[in-house]
Amino acid sequence: MDAVDERRTHNEATKAIYKAIRLQGWSGLRVPRELHVGLYAFVNPLWCLKPPLPSPLSGIVLQHHTELVIDYTHTRQRTFWETMSPQTAYELGQQMINLKCLIRRFPRTPDGAEGLEAGLHYAAAGWCRGIVVALVEGHVMGRQLARDKEGPLTTMSEGSLKSLAFEPVPVRDIGLQEIRRLDKIRSEPPAVDPLQSINLPALTEVKGVNHKGVNPRSMIDGRGWAIPALQRVRDECTVEMEHVKPFITTTRCLVKMRVPSLTPPQMAELLDCIPLEQRGAAGLHCSPLAKLRMVSSIKLYGIEVTEIRDGIRDLQKCLIDRGCWKSLNLLSIEVHRSDCHSTLLNDYATFKVLAKFVDAICSPLATLHFTVHSSSAEDRDIPLTMSLNKLLAYTLFDFGKLPACSLHLLNAALQMYNLRVESESLPINFSPFTKSAGDVQWSPTCHYVWTITPDQLDRSQGASDDSDKARMNELVLEWLGRPSSSTRANSTDRHSTGFSISIECADGWAPPADARPPEPPELNAFKPEGLNLVKNLTVKSRIGLGVAKAVVGKGARLEKLRLMHMTGTDVLGLLDRINEFKMPREVTLESFMPDDGRQASQLPVKLKGQRVKTLLVKGELAMRLVATMRPHMPMLEMLIVYGDEGQVREALVNAGPGVPNRLCLGFTSEGRHEFIKAEDEREGITLGDWKDRMPSIRSVLVHLDVPSANVADAGIFILSSIWSLLEMDANALTVVLPDSPDVSSHLRGVQMAMERRFGQTLGTVMAAEKRFVLTTDDIQAVRRERERSESTYGRPFLSFSCFSLMIQMRKAVFAHSSAADTLKAVLEANQQHTMPKGLTLKRLSSMLNRYFPSLDSNTAVEALASDFAGRMSAAALMTVVDPPYAPRRLKAPLMAAMQRHGLAMEPMLKLYGDGPCIPSPSVITSAAQLMAILQTTGKDITGTQLLYKASEHGYGFADMLNHVDDAGRLLILIRAANGSVNGCFISGSLLPPPQLPDAPTFNQYSVGALVFKASGPSQPVFQSASLTLQYVTVSRPTILTETKLLVGPPVTRGARIEEGLGLWAPDPAPAQGLVPERCQVQVMWGRRTESMLADEIEVMRLQTGP
Fold it and tell me: By C-alpha distance, which of 198, 167, 141 is closest to 70?
């Protein structure tokens, strides 16, 4: 095209624009006519221009476009770009000769997309990638043609494009399959000429060169792009070095490179793609990385330490060879919070290599940032346990052979663990490191561990001390982290949580018994008050006393001190080192050793324990030491004793006068759960049996471990434990139960046990806002006590903290007896039948309020027996009356008294009718279980008759049929060898088929029935809430291949039975010789079938009223 034709085309395009302006009503704009074209271009983006494109009109308009955005989320744009060919994009790029910024926004999966792990995304990074490449390459060619057209005197610079950005945008309701489809749309750029050269001299910034997409190819690899002025490369996603290399290979001006963290070998490999500059007259200033000021996130984890050292050396050489010498202003080092102390602070070789790297690469005024990596699976609110040995191993480094920046580096690394060096030799430009990588937060507490090792014993016995004396008395422990949200919500004081230190032996190593506790010189690195934020100290054996004394000597302001496996002398020696104003408020003494034959009372005590308010004790020796220390702790409020019941009993019996008014048995604190386990889980806690040998205690709180349902009835266990604890004469008793899924059944068990024991006279177990209190209708004070205790226990508890309720519980065994009735029983027990001296009705009533502690054995047992008879007489229909509870001292006299009164020491059943209470007729179920079954039948049961018992009558099916005959209302109970109970109730009779040659082998008929099971002493569970119509199938006794008695819903013969009970099923392994026939039981429950061998079988007929 000649100049005349070109001017004619340009004029026609200009006229077309003016016409478009008139049609859009812009002709009245009060702007110069020569600005109308630029204004039209401003309000009309590329995708709004009328086709065909390119056109003369677009050639005029696109010259005014300096920014182009390709956005997937814009529907009209998306359609425009997806239907464009790369060749068309190239031609449009030729018209955009003044383009400065190009942005492509491609789709990615949203957070929480189906099929993807949390935090994982997939992006369609290939979407319209070919369009972008074509636009850029067309722009370069078009601008070059425009400059050539202007000739040698052109004022147009060689390049205009300054910024490229590639941004993923989350798209709702998009999945991986759709991402894979979109990733292929317009992803391929135009074919490339092998000799092609695309020069972008103005491009200074590239953002987002790599994203986790489906197609891993680099967008410009092999296309001849030259970006000599590139200064900033930024990528926030997981980096693939092959994506970044083509962009930085030709740069000579790189200033900032912000890419995801790379290990030193990876970073060296990435930068090695930049060619070395020939040294000339300009020297190092012409080198490609001479202007480099920031390199982000060198990752020092995930590879072997030797690879880290070699990689740092290679990276240092790579940077220096390319002109980066003492030029970086910012260097970021990313470490993993769980192993940085091992990688740097405990490894002199690695620390030295890193220090030399920092010294060679960073400017004297550089800022060093340590960022902390925390994996997504890691719970950030869980305290991190850190080795204090490894954190302080730097004290053995020879800092005289390290660069001057090594202290700067040391301080930055230590601050990740809340340690700070206070030294005059620190650089004045030091700035605090950045602790977070993304959203990392530290837990509200930090825990440090010092491990005693054999080499510390060697050093304490005269070996040389290699520690750097210059690094002593300069370290401070302080809260330097960014607290988590839970910490900010619960605390306004940044130091309120404090730190904890544990001192323990190395795994698998036991120090000699006579070993002297070492005092490691590394701990001298702390300033005299450097450990004043240490709140908790645990010493797990006496070998750690030297370290403990060093911690105390460095200003620790302890709130809690826990001492284990040492002697009383060791404890008193350590406590003597603690200033009275820094004495902990809580002291734990656990598992003590004998003290060279000396008794605890013989130990000299110089304790200044005015601040001690709580003592936690485990073991007899520790308890004896407490008795010696008690006079020196005037503010002691609570003693907590834990262990099993035997350990607790021995501790209390030998406590002496040193027990405070409040006693806690077991505790829960900071993840520790110490519940008191009864010696005999079938009987409950029996500490009250030893009350005469225990000190007087006003208030008792017990964390009670409740056995499983197959061991003991939870209600009876808890109630028996409560009575025994009440024997200790405390004015307040609180029982805390484990916060487990079984707690509701435990409390229901207590309710049922109370009803069996007291009827409705004492009260009920009430639930309010997850707090459970045993209360009475007429004692309102208990509810106030419940509200007061809410914040204290935070778990289900049974509270007897009201004095009035204590009286009610103590005299509860006499709930159905008046003072006159009891006096009569007392007189009957007295052979002279005279009033005991000084005993009156008024005094007797007072004695009943105080219960066991005030009554002699004869009076108590006669009162208990008389009351048992009275409770049976007053019992409601279809209830169980439990026998009286008796402490150990009354068990034998009570049995004799019960025999004199003709009573049995077992639960009694009150059935319908006028008859007396009867004992349970079953050896398989407890009285409470049997009553629950009888109640569920819905029948008015007046009595029971045992018809068949396998251990007496034989285990055969025919044996059972012969004894049961045609009796109706049958209750069948089966106990398996594992102790589980199964059974059924049949409202009719067992009707086997007639014994005729042509008769069927089984008889099936419908009848009201009930199927149930129970585990141990727990309450039975029923397949239906009441009697329902079910089918009973009875086979001939001679048939060996079928289940002889089956109770359950109707099913087709041979079909799978999903619910029901089968007895005398085919035996998979017939016994040889011992019994002629065994009863194999099949329990079908919840579509599961379980087979077991019967240990005992009972069949009884239930009698009903007229």
Answer: 167
